[in-house]
Amino acid sequence: ISLSALTSCSAQKKNTTAPNGNPIVRDIYTADPSAHVWKDGRLYVYPSHDVAPPKGCDLMDKYHVYSTDDMVHWRDEGQILESSQVSWGRKEGGFMWAPDCAYKNGTYYFYFPHPSDTKWNDTWKIGVATSKYPAKDFKVQGYIQGIESLIDPCVFVDDDGQAYFYHGGGGKCMGGKLKDNMMEVDGQLQKMEGLEDFHEATWVHKRNGVYYLSYSDNHDKDGKHNQMRYATSSSPLGPWKYQGIYMDPTDSYTNHGSIVEFKGQWYAFYHNSVLSHHDWLRSICVDKLFYNEDGTIKKVQQTMG
Ligand code: FUB
Would the pLDDT of 15 be above 70? Predict the structure, then answer.
């Protein structure tokens, strides 16, 4: 990790209720929701933030956090980070893509993909910002050293406290252990084997001792939109057994999801473009997720407000 601590951005709380259901955020465009339940009993969502066209994903420049205690009323916890706070980032800013957050030993770790150079696609780094709080006071600490230029970080902390880091895109998914400091990989990352048609958006969760790695694929049968697929394993690093599609495409070119249990119910977070009808102005959504008796996932039924 390169130690280049920068100033933090204090969150400004405001309430955003969503009595109409999906999309759960309607005042700004959000995508790539990574959901976690933290020790205060609330569910927190860490999405990326889409910005109005004519340009698209290059303009994504900041992160907000959302939280709820009932899956109905959502609180915008405010902005936690923007590209101007990243000293090693490309000078033009932008490209703050799909993030994740993890908690260990009293610290929250916010992981965000961001390029370090104008030639953005060859210079992706996974930045790490830390805080004592889940949704404010994050300070950039640097980025994870010694890994490839890939996007979409995911950090899974197992029951024994061991953290695993994943990232990937363009067909390659890599994973490995994190050291206790949560900012360095322990050894080399390895390719995740057994995933069928992997594109990006890795998410790992565990249920009844089984590890699930979910991801978006390259396209549906019409070659247009991502489907969400998953695979299972008895180990957090695979090899993985491909299990199928758990979510059909939305109206958006991309999809990116997370799966989490909250108050006894499992949920699938994802995004679509129903508010904008534009591929790069997306909106985060959530629907219930159910398992079959054998642990396979039933296809998620997407609902609208
Ligand atoms: O939001 C920017 C990128 O689009 C994400 O990193 C990908 O997963 C896709 O959703």
Answer: no
How does DSSP classify residue 298?
A: P
Q: How far apart are CA 256 and CA 130, in angstroms?
A: 24
Residue nearest to atom 1 of ligand 1 (CA): 97
3-state helix, strand, coil in the chain (%, to 5): 5, 45, 50
**pLDDT of residue 19 exceeding 70:** no
Strands 198-207 and 73-82: unpaired
Catalytic annotation on 159?
Answer: no
Residue 180 appears among annotated catalytic residues: no
Residue 99: which of 84, 121, 82 has the closest Cα?
82
Q: What's the one-letter identity of residue 18?
A: A
φ and ψ at residue 84, rounded to 5 degrees = -65, -15
Q: How far is the CA of 249 from the centre of ligand 1 (A)?
A: 15
How high is the pLDDT of residue 54?
Answer: 61
Cis peptide before 239 (omega within 30 of 0): yes
Could you give the 3-state DSSP secondary structure of residue 240? Answer: coil
pLDDT tens-digit readout, 46-82: 999 999 776 677 888 999 999 999 999 999 999 999 9
Atom nearest to 254 CA in ligand 1: 10
Q: 128: CA distance to ligand 1 center in Å?
A: 18
Burial 219-241 (b: 16+ CB within 10 A, else e): eeeeeebbbbbbbbbeebbbebe
ipTM of the complex: 0.98
